[in-house]
From TrEMBL:
Cleaved signal peptide residues: none
Domain of life: Eukaryota
SUPFAM superfamilies named among the record's database cross-references: Acetyl-CoA synthetase-like
Residues covered by the AMP-binding enzyme C-terminal domain: 476-551
Family: Belongs to the ATP-dependent AMP-binding enzyme family.
UniProt entry tagged with the keyword Ligase: yes
Keywords recorded for this protein, A-Z: Ligase
Keyword Ligase belongs to the record: yes
Record CDD domains: ttLC_FACS_AEE21_like
Protein name listed in UniProt: AMP-dependent synthetase/ligase domain-containing protein
Organism: Selaginella moellendorffii
Length: 573
C-alpha cells in the first residue's frame, strides 16, 4: 500500500516551532537581557526571515547552471542557497535555525573563532549566497569576503550581507560592507504570514556543520531534516526534559546547531535564555534570575564553574535543580564529582558533529545510588549506551569489523549507524566513503566495552601514545593530572623520545592563585601511575589551546611537543 497525505509526512524539526506558537503563543520563547519574544512572535520573526530570504533570491531551484554542470562532472555534493551565519548566542542566532530552512535554504553556522582565510575557504567551497553576521565579527567577514572574491572571480555573485546589531555589545564598532542590511530592517522586508513548506524529501540537507578540526582539517557535515527531527526528540527523552523547560545557552549555537537543542526546546515549548558571553558570573546570574532548569557545557566550562564557586556567596540551593549535560571531551571523574558536590545534576553524553551532537548517554542505574561519590563519578565518566534515536552502536575491531569482547579491557573503534548519522561530507566523497566503511560510521574514537554494555572512551585513534611498544591512553594520564590540587586543565600528547620512540608530554594550566612546578606534578604522577605511563615532560601554560566549543586542540599541542625536540634521556623515576 502506498503512503499518502493521510499516513505520511516528511519529518522536519521546523514543525516544532508552529506547534509551540499554536499551543503556547504567549509563553516566553527567547529572553536576552531586556529583550523578550513569545512563541507567537518567534514564529512571525522566523517566517519574516524566510520570506525576506526568498525575496532576495534564496530558495529552491536557484542554481548557476555552469557550476552545476561542473559539480556533477566532478561528483560534488554541492549545495546551493546556502546561508552562512556568524554570531554568538543572541536571539537572531536562534531564529536562523528555523527561518533559514523555512526558506528551503541550507544553514551554515560558522565558528566565530576561525580566521578569515579559513572562513573564505568555507564560503568558496560551499556556495554561500547570503551572510548574516553579528556586528562584533564584521572585521572577520569583511576580510573573508575579500579573500572569497579573489578566489571566486566572476564565477559567483558575491553574497549579500545582513548585519545583526546588538545594543548590549560593548566592543568597538566596525565598518559595514557596502550594501549591507540591518537584521531588523531585513525582517521587516518579510511576510509574517509566509507559508513555508516542508521539504519534499526528509533527507534533504537542513544544515552543514563544519567539524571543529581538533584532529584534522574541518569537513562539512551534511545534516538532514529527518535526522534533526529525531535527534531533537531523542534529546528530550534521553535527558528527561520537562515541558516548559528553561534552557540556558552556554553551548555555542554554531556547534552542530547547538546539539539540536534549538529544535528540542521548541518541541517542549520551553524558554531559551541567551548569553552573548559565557562566564561563571553570567551563568550564576541567569540561574538565579530565570530559574534555569537545563544547560549544556563542555568539561572546560564545568571547570570554570567549579573554580568560580569556590568561596562564592552564590547559594548551593539556587541551582540544586539545574541539570547539566556535558560532552565534547571525556570529563575526568574528579571534575564530575566536584560539580555534583555543588548541587548540579550532571548527565554525561558523547557524540560528534557527524551524529548531530550527542548520540550516547551514560544512563543512570538506580542500583548505583548507594555507591560512594567517587565511584558514582567514575561510572558517570563513561560514555554509556545509545540514544533511543540511534539504531546501532558497536565497539568494533577496526580491521575485521567484528565486535570486541565486552570485558572492559579490549580496545576497539566506536562505530554508529542509523538516522542520527550524517548524510555525508560536503564536496568530499572520498572521506564520506571511508567514514562509512563496512556499513558503519567510524568515529575514530577508541573505547572498551564493559560487561554491562556501556562503552568507555580510551582515546582518539590519533591520540594513543605508543611508547616502547606499549599503548598509553592519554585520557588515563589526564585523569590523574586532574586530581592534582593545582591543576585546572590538562592534556597529554606524544613527544619524540630517543629511547622509546615517543613518550607522554603533559601540558597543564594551573588554578588561579595556585603555584606548582614540573617536578611536583611529575612526582604526583609517579605516585598514581604505572612507571611506563608517567609523562617524561610537563609544560605549564597560562591556558591550553581550545576550539570555540571548549575542546582542547591536541594537534596544536602536538606541534608544540615536537618543537621541544626529542627527549634525550630517561626521566628519573
Amino acid at each position: 500500500m502506498d503512503l499518502g497525505e493521510a499516513n505520511y509526512a516528511p519529518l522536519s524539526p521546523l514543525v516544532f516551532l508552529e506547534r509551540a506558537a499554536q499551543i503556547h503563543p504567549q509563553r516566553p520563547a527567547v529572553i536576552y537581557n531586556s529583550r523578550r519574544f513569545t512563541w507567537s512572535q518567534e514564529l512571525q520573526r522566523c517566517r519574516r526571515l524566510a520570506s525576506a530570504l526568498r525575496r532576495r533570491g534564496i530558495g529552491p531551484g536557484d542554481v548557476e547552471k555552469k557550476f552545476f554542470l561542473f559539480c556533477k562532472i566532478h561528483g560534488f555534493f554541492f549545495l546551493f542557497c546556502k546561508v552562512a551565519v556568524v554570531a554568538p548566542n543572541v536571539p537572531a542566532m536562534y531564529e536562523v535555525q528555523f527561518g533559514v530552512p523555512m526558506a528551503s535554504a541550507v544553514l551554515n553556522c560558522v565558528n566565530i573563532r576561525l580566521d578569515q582565510r579559513t572562513v573564505a575557504t568555507l564560503f568558496h567551497y560551499s556556495g554561500v549566497k547570503a551572510v548574516l553576521v553579528d556586528e562584533e565579527f564584521l572585521h572577520l567577514i569583511s576580510g573573508a569576503l575579500r579573500d572569497w572574491t579573489a578566489k571566486a572571480g566572476t564565477l559567483f555573485q558575491a553574497p549579500f550581507v545582513v548585519v545583526i546589531r546588538d545594543e548590549f555589545f560593548q566592543g568597538m564598532e566596525n565598518s559595514w560592507p557596502p550594501g549591507s542590511s540591518d537584521y531588523e530592517d531585513f525582517l521587516r522586508e518579510g511576510d509574517p504570514s509566509f507559508e513555508w513548506t516542508r521539504p519534499e524529501d526528509e533527507t534533504e540537507t537542513i544544515s552543514v556543520s563544519y567539524t571543529s578540526g581538533t584532529t584534522a582539517s574541518p569537513k562539512g557535515v551534511m545534516l538532514t531534516h529527518r535526522g534533526a527531527y529525531l535527534s531533537a526528540l531523542s534529546e528530550c527523552v534521553t535527558w528527561e526534559m520537562k515541558h516548559g523547560c528553561i534552557y540556558l545557552w552556554t553551548l555555542p549555537l554554531f556547534h552542530c546547531n547547538g546539539w539540536c537543542f534549538p529544535w528540542a526546546v521548541a518541541a517542549l515549548a520551553g524558554t531559551n535564555i541567551c548569553l552573548r558571553q559565557v562566564t561563571a558570573k553570567g551563568i550564576f546570574a541567569a540561574i538565579a534570575e530565570h530559574n534555569v532548569t537545563n544547560f549544556c557545557a563542555a568539561p572546560t566550562v564545568l571547570n570554570t564553574i567549579i573554580s568560580a564557586a569556590t568561596g562564592s556567596t552564590f547559594s548551593r540551593l539556587q541551582h540544586r535543580q539545574v541539570r547539566i549535560m556535558t560532552a565534547g571531551a571525556a570529563p575526568p571523574a574528579t571534575v564530575l564529582a566536584k560539580i555534583e558536590a555543588l548541587g548540579f545534576h550532571v548527565t554525561h553524553v558523547y557524540g560528534l558533529t557527524e551524529t548531530y551532537g550527542p548520540c550516547t548517554v551514560c544512563e543512570w542505574n538506580p542500583e548505583w545510588d548507594n555507591l560512594s561519590p567517587d565511584e558514582q563519578a567514575r561510572l558517570k565518566a563513561r560514555q554509556g549506551v545509545k540514544y533511543v534515536g540511534l539504531d546501532g552502536l558497536q565497539v568494533l575491531n577496526s580491521e575485521t569489523l567484528e565486535p570486541v569482547a565486552k570485558d572492559g579491557v579490549t580496545i576497539g573503534e566506536v562505530c554508529m549507524r542509523g538516522n542520527m548519522v550524517f548524510k555525508g561530507y560536503l564536496n568530499n566523497p572520498e572521506a564520506t566513503l571511508e567514514s562509512f566503511r563496512g556499513g558503519w560510521f567510524h568515529s575514530g574514537d577508541l573505547a572498551v566495552w564493559h560487561p554491562d554494555g556501556y562503552i568507555e572512551i580510551k582515546d582518539r585513534a590519533k591520540d594513543i601514545i605508543i611508547s616502547g611498544g606499549e599503548n598509553i591512553s592519554s585520557l588515563e594520564v589526564e585523569s590523574i593530572l586532574y586530581r592534582h590540587p593545582a591543576v585546572l586543565e590538562a592534556a597529554v600528547v606524544a613527544r619524540p623520545d630517543e629511547k622509546w620512540g615517543e613518550s607522554p608530554c603533559a601540558f597543564v594550566s594551573l588554578k588561579y592563585g595556585v603555584r606548582s612546578n614540573e617536578e611536583e606534578i611529575l612526582s604526583f604522577c609517579r605516585q598514581h601511575l604505572p612507571k611506563f605511563m608517567v609523562p617524561k615532560s610537563v609544560v605549564i601554560l597560562a591556558a591550553l589551546d581550545k576550539t570555540a566549543t571548549g575542546k582542547i586542540q591536541k594537534q596544536v599541542l602536538r606541534s608544540k611537543a615536537r618543537a621541544l625536540g626529542s627527549v634525550k634521556q630517561i626521566s628519573k623515576l
